Amino acid sequence: MAIHAELAPEHMLTDPDSLRGSLGRPMQGVADREFFPSVVEKAAALLHALATTQPFSDGNKRTAWTCCVTYLKQNGIEVSAEVGQDTVVTFVVDIATNRYEPAEIALQLLEWIE
């Protein structure tokens, strides 16, 4: 919520259940098997969930990307500064329109990590 408030303060949360589900998605699993075991896979799952479910009235894609990058950074992983804004925008728009699954997103993130 804090990240979204900073990026799009004039827009509100319209689907709290969707937000809760999106935030929990990286931790999903069955028994003792995690669906997204690595930090990068968790970040990809978070990015995918937030970008596709769109829980806010606007600013969803910006929020999704910033949450992904923040999660990675909190775990000691940086996305290269060489990755341009246009590249990120295209990538996140493609995610929001279901062109990528979390596994594919994780592979792209791995290419962009410093």
Order of helices and strands: HHEEHHHH
Shape: globular
Distance between termini? Answer: 27 Å
Q: Which CATH class?
A: Mainly Alpha
* CATH superfamily label: Fic/DOC protein, Fido domain
User: Are there runs of 5+ residues with pLDDT below 50, and where?
Assistant: none
| Biggest sheet: strand arrangement | 1-2
Characterize the biggest β-sheet. 2 strands, antiparallel
| Tally of helical runs | 6
CATH architecture: Up-down Bundle
Helix proportion range = 55-70%
Query: What class do helices, strands and sheet pairing give?
Result: mainly alpha
Walk me through this protein's architecture.
This protein has 114 residues and is mainly α. It has one domain: Fic/DOC protein, Fido domain (Four Helix Bundle (Hemerythrin (Met), subunit A), Up-down Bundle), CATH 1.20.120.1870. It has six helices and two strands; from the N terminus they run H-H-E-E-H-H-H-H. The protein has a two-stranded antiparallel sheet with strand order 1-2. Strand 1 and strand 2 form a beta hairpin. Helix 2 runs antiparallel to helix 3 and helix 3 crosses helix 5. The longest helix is centred in the middle third of the chain and has 15 residues. The protein is globular, with a radius of gyration of 13 Å.
Summarize the structure.
Helices cover 60% and strands 4% of the residues. It has helices at 2-7, 16-24, 39-53, 60-74, 85-96, 102-112, and strands at 29-30, 33-34. The N and C termini lie far apart (27 Å).
